[in-house]
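Students often ask why we bother encoding 3D structure as a string. The short answer is that it lets us treat folding as translation between two languages. Here is a chain of 325 residues written in the first language.
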Amino acid sequence: MTTVATHPRQHRASRLVLLAVLVTVVSAAFAPVGAARTDASTSAAVRIWTIHYTAHNGLVRTAYVILPAWYGPEHNPPLPLVISPHGRAANGLQNADYWDAMPAVGRFAVICPDGMGRTLALYSYGDPGQVDDLARMPGFATKALPWLRIDRSRIYALGSSMGGQETLLLVARHPELLAGAAAMDSVTDLALRYRQIPGEELRDMMSREVGGTPQTAPGAYAARSAFLQASRIASSRVPLQIWWSTKDRIVINQQSQSGALYTAIRQLDPCASVSDYVGSWAHSTEMRAHALLPIALSGFGLLPRAYMQLPDDVRHDTAPQCSAA
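And here it is in the second language, the structure alphabet:
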């Protein structure tokens, strides 16, 4: 467990100051000769490119590619890429807002697709077709932006809530794609989540997307549940961060969701490259540039090590150091 002595609000303020300073330095250092320098504001530090792609069911969908403002057709070194699926009822552009100026600080790209489920657009709930579309995002991005160069050895996935669910399923289905993944406040057992949902409206929406209830379509729920694919995740060798909150009021009892997946992976492979981050934040609020998202990114080397200090109210368990056989 790593701790810092600062108050949470002081910790947030110092991180924002550091972000502003680093954006200024990075923008100046990597701006091409003759180009206007960017300042520390989000709008000036990064640029969001809107692209379109054809989803697994043939529908045209929108995705948003976040790049440092200095990056473009005339200045395009290879960049790491983060695939970031959105949460339930959100869209790609809303998800893009969470990243603020971090792609400029770390010199990486982010793609935030609107996504498409089996039948619903913003409620895909880990549909296998949607997860396969996530795996195709690097190709979709470079097809739409031919000058974009992606470092194919450094592709990551990171999402929260439903986006975390789909991140975990991407690890299970396409481990060869990823150099790392972080899943935050995720549903890992969709049938359990169905039973935990208060009210009929959300349950009806889930059953419409999945194709039935857990009783009538158990296989469809299993296909969308990372917990039931824990063996694939454990054997994937993809470095994985699992973030969850003991005070989550949306995905309730996270111990039975993200916590249960972490325990299962540990039991399957004590040396698996998986880390557990446990705190008491409100649902998905950790996935913000001013919150804990920079710590997750620094764990993959996408941001400077200065971001790696955890607040003292976050518990961090890491894999043991296992020697190679």
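Translate back mentally: The CA atoms of residues 50 and 209 lie 26 Å apart. Keep this in mind for the problem set.
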